[in-house]
Design a protein that fits this description.
The protein has 57 residues and is an alpha+beta fold. It has two helices and two strands; from the N terminus they run αββα. It has a domain of 33 residues.
Length: 57
């Protein structure tokens, strides 16, 4: 049940698209990305980890 809520939220945010799945048939999902950008990797909406590091004095 919990995974379904998360998947529905990702569909609402347009990060994934549901492909198939009905009446007992397995659900399939497609990750939606803008492939026109840089090819260094796709991290849909994730924060850069370098920005999370806290500088200590």
């Amino acid at each position: 049940m919990q995974i379904r809520r998360h998947l529905e939220r990702l569909i609402e945010l347009e990060y994934i698209h549901q492909r198939g799945g009905r009446n007992g048939i397995a659900m399939k999902y497609e990750l939606l990305v803008d492939a026109a950008g840089e090819s260094t990797g796709y991290h849909v909406g994730l924060i850069d980890t370098a920005k999370l590091k806290v500088k200590t004095a």
